[in-house]
Amino acid sequence: xxxxxxxxxxxxxxxxxxxxxxxxxxxxxxxxxxxxxxxxxxxxxxxxxxxxxxxxxxxxxxxxxxxxxxxxxxxxxxxxxxxxxxxxxxxxxxxxxxxxxxxxxxxxxxxxxxxxxxxxxxxxxxxxxxxxxxxxxxxxxxxxxxxxxxxxxxxxxxxxxxxxxxxxxxxxxxxxxxxxxxx
Length: 183
Known about the structure:
The protein is of the alpha/beta class. It has one domain (10-181): 3-Layer(aba) Sandwich (Rossmann fold). Helix content is 30%, strand content 14%. It has five helices and six strands, in the order E-H-E-H-E-H-E-E-H-E-H. Strand 1, helix 1 (24-28) and strand 2 (34-36) form a beta-alpha-beta unit.
């Protein structure tokens, strides 16, 4: 794979259960300059622990990274932005799950309510019309509140391994587009 010097550093933020085998984030983690952020607890996380881990990863990145969050990690980014002033270049927020929705996994702590303040960095939200973890209107609400560009991709499920995205080159294109908007 080519070195994505216009993108790096990129921190990949999996959602609950850690974006398992076949997930596009696993593939992206093999790209030079991309690093998967490993949380201590994947199945019953406390958002405060995830925020601490993300903050350490941003500090360790050396220069302002791009964040790529999936599912519950989109809520993580919103919580982190509310608590931490560290600069980042921007974030691609893919399939943000609704922590107050009926499908949000039980056993988590602190993800609800979803922070709805404008994010202090450029963002793109990617949403599917048939995501079981957030309605399209819910994703639109998050994008509006955060000041994000919204990309609706049609009926693609939760944009995870079950969606059959493979390496998801369209997602890399969206990340490149976000990076280009940053100048």
